[in-house]
Design a protein that fits this description.
Blueprint (H helix, E strand, L loop, with lengths): L7 H9 L3 H8 L20 E13 L4 E12 L5 E6 L3 E7 L2 E2 L3 E4 L9 E6 L6 E7 L7 E4 L11 E4 L19 E9 L5 E4 L12 E11 L5 E4 L2 E4 L4 E5 L4 H7 L3 H12 L7 E5 L8 E2 L4 E4 L12 H8 L7 E3 L5 H20 L1 H22 L23 H18 L1 H14 L3 E3 L1 H13 L11 H6 L13 H14 L14 H9 L7 H11 L7 H13 L6 H10 L3 H13 L3 H11 L5 H11 L2
Parallel strand pairs: 1-11, 16-17, 17-19, 20-21
Antiparallel strand pairs: 1-2, 2-8, 3-7, 4-5, 4-8, 6-7, 9-10, 10-14, 11-13, 12-14, 15-16, 18-19
Helix pairs in contact: 1-10, 4-5, 4-6, 5-6, 6-7, 6-8, 7-8, 8-9, 9-10, 12-13, 13-15, 15-17, 16-18, 17-18, 17-19
Length: about 625
Amino acid sequence: MRILYSTLAAVSLMFNACSSDQQSASQQTHSNDMVINDPHSFSKPAIARGTHLNWDAKVDFNTQTISGTATWTVEAAPDAKEIIFDTRGLTIHKVSADGKSVDYSLKDTVNGEPWMGQALHIPISASTQQVSVQYTTSADAAALQWLKAEQTRDKQHPFLFTQSQAILARTWLPCQDGPGMRFTFEAQVQVPAGMLALMSAENPQQVSADGKYQFKMEQPIPSYLMSLAVGNLAFQAVGKETGVYAEPSFVAACAEELSDMQTMLEKAEQLYGKYQWGRYDVIVLPPSFPFGGMENPRITFATPTIIAGDKSLVALVAHELAHSWSGNLVTNATWNDFWLNEGFTVYFENRIMEAVYGKDYAEMLQVLEYESLVETVQEFGATSADTHLKLKLEGRDPDEGVSDIAYNKGAYFLRLLESKVGRENWDAFVNGYFTTNAFKVMTTEAFVEYLNEHLIDAHPEAFADVDIRAWIYGPGIPDNCPKVVSTRFTAVDQEVHAFNGGAAAASLKTSGWTTHEWLRFIYQLPEDITVERMGDLDKSFHFTGIGNCEIADAWYELAVKRHYATAYADMETFLCSVGRRKFLTPLYKAMMQTNQSEMAKRIYAKARPGYHYVAQNTLDELVGN
């Protein structure tokens, strides 16, 4: 039932009346630190928590393991008898408390949830200052991707990178592995000579002769933002506070493609306050990285698929930069509150792109976001609980919460709020939100309270017809979702209409189109397009074999659905050379749904060893292993 509130009292009632879920979250919250009982962590930080990590580690490419000692500074309640860390697949060699060896125990979840791993129970007292854990990771640790030299671009050295989100940090570090638990850290890392090591910390820009590196992160971060990359890497600055790491033969091209990073950073600061992390750098990883980017503080991990040669895919960098405020600075308390990270970030990303490239460019991105949101809602079902902004992921791997709902429904909800009070008032609110809550965690319920106090109360009439509960706790896309029109897409649609009416591909007016316009064009082609008409498009625009991964993925998906076999060989090459899950999933899904499962299984068997665990986990279920 949709309820419209027309008075201030009713609006306040809507925000302050708690459901049983909200009451539970409130009871688990303590002061501004918001110590939360996270359903995806064994730790009980209200009893004892690690506040600072000193990590001493050695990276061994021969055994594909990391051996380390994690020494945690402990903050404990007066009655604390133990501290609990999350682990998964770690071999524990020794545990000590304040320098003295202690007995410990490892306990599995009673619910048979393999993604949770094991709880490491360490006995302490209220006076315990530090605990240390000596351990070795397993060779198949889910967060660690070990690449042979031949799997890299320059083929000179092997490569290692981590991916800790959502709860994979525990596979390479004993930690309290939830987004609501922040800590500072120092690290000493030994890697093979001739290789560069980087972390989400203050980073070197040159290779150390002896392979020893020191790191420091003075701002508190959650475990999912812990990162490590080791490889044959070079650095090139693009601005006074920004730069790019990549393999030596690729670094110049990456720096050229990402040359607007400094401008993006400055525009972001103008919008929502000072960047609080020191430098902002990007490392362009080998192709097997499963995501577009990961917002590790100080150093975004990025897929090479964004290097298109025309800066048309740099919105991803704007997105990861925006995370320096939404997510890294103000962090979702649990993965049920994931939309607070990603909804704000997509909104902020779009504002950065508008400031750097213009409103008409940003409008194209918004239209694509909406279309993707509609498709996701249709896939889940309009009444599915997975289309709520506030999720219920208990008993599930939180990686299942990663969908367009958190990203795009969240962003459109924030655009609705902006439309009600105007951009000036909205920007003042968001700026205050980031400043007031810097280096803290946020629940959905606490955000609603903050929204009520700092925006709604001052403009009650503006929000009279906004049912915020329907947006946050309800399914689907509410009727008052903002509508965005792109003039540049209108021009594209005219060309689509001409082509669908029989015009030859060569006659279409496509000069100057960006990636987004080409995506719009492909997405608007009829579902029953013939193989002959696809061939006409291919002859003029060379979609098959194109180097732009966004366009290639959209084209190959259409090719599979229409059985356009001309594209299959190049699609197979694409699937064997790209590891980004966003590109892989729709192609394998299309093959499985069009009676081409044998082709899917054959290609997947060939390509799977080069994919990251995150991608394998998704595709094993879809295609079979």
